[in-house]
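> forwarded from #structure-qc
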């Protein structure tokens, strides 16, 4: 009421420790390759960066949390689960969304699906052969029940992952992508070779396991 004391809120937090892990890759290259091919250095940097980010994508979803792996949402101790069973894929996904909203008290921000699994959704047709998700002439919506679907091979095939990554997860980057080049590896100096390495250090943290749900058997 007006002029009355405000209601006091409380947050129940449990302290946990999580390791900052390193994602790393390296590539050997000769002096001649670096000298003779225009733009090769920049191209190699792009490829190494892509390798690290693909590894990060995989770890965020399927990492087991055992060093040097990050925690992946699929492997959270209290992640929710919904079996497809006799439901259609869209129906099973909706049941998972409801679990995130009701039990997890969260709002799903993304659905991760393997491209092979999304194909089964994109090709759904009505009884008279009309594509539900739009004509083959159109890209069609990449959404289910209004929630964006992210297609990635980092996702376990036949299992989708629904989660409130915006509200209940955090990628904490201790050190961003870093590149170094050296000819001091092994016998590289006398053989005219160089080693290019790329790495980053980060931790993936989840604040509420129940804000995530995997849908199996799709």
């Amino acid at each position: 009421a007006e002029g009355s004391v405000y209601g006091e809120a409380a947050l129940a937090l449990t302290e946990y420790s999580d390791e900052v892990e390193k994602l790393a890759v390296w590539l050997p290259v000769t002096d001649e390759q670096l000298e003779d091919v225009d733009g090769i250095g920049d191209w190699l940097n792009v490829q190494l960066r892509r390798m690290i980010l693909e590894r990060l994508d995989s770890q965020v979803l399927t990492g087991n949390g055992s060093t040097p792996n990050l925690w992946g949402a699929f492997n959270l101790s209290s992640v929710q689960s919904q079996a497809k069973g006799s439901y259609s894929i869209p129906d099973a996904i909706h049941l998972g969304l409801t679990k995130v909203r009701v039990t997890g008290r969260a709002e799903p921000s993304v659905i991760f699906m393997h491209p092979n699994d999304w194909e089964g959704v994109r090709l759904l047709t009505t009884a008279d052969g009309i594509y539900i998700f739009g004509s083959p002439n159109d890209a069609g919506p990449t959404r289910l029940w209004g929630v964006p679907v992210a297609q990635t091979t980092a996702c376990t095939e036949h299992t989708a992952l629904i989660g409130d990554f915006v509200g209940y997860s955090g990628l904490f980057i201790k050190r961003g992508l870093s590149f170094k080049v050296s000819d001091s590896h092994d016998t590289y100096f006398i053989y005219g070779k160089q080693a290019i390495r790329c790495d980053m250090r980060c931790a993936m943290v989840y604040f509420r396991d129940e804000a995530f749900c995997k849908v199996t058997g799709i």
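QC bot note: The chain has six helices and nine strands. The CA atoms of residues 47 and 161 lie 28 Å apart.
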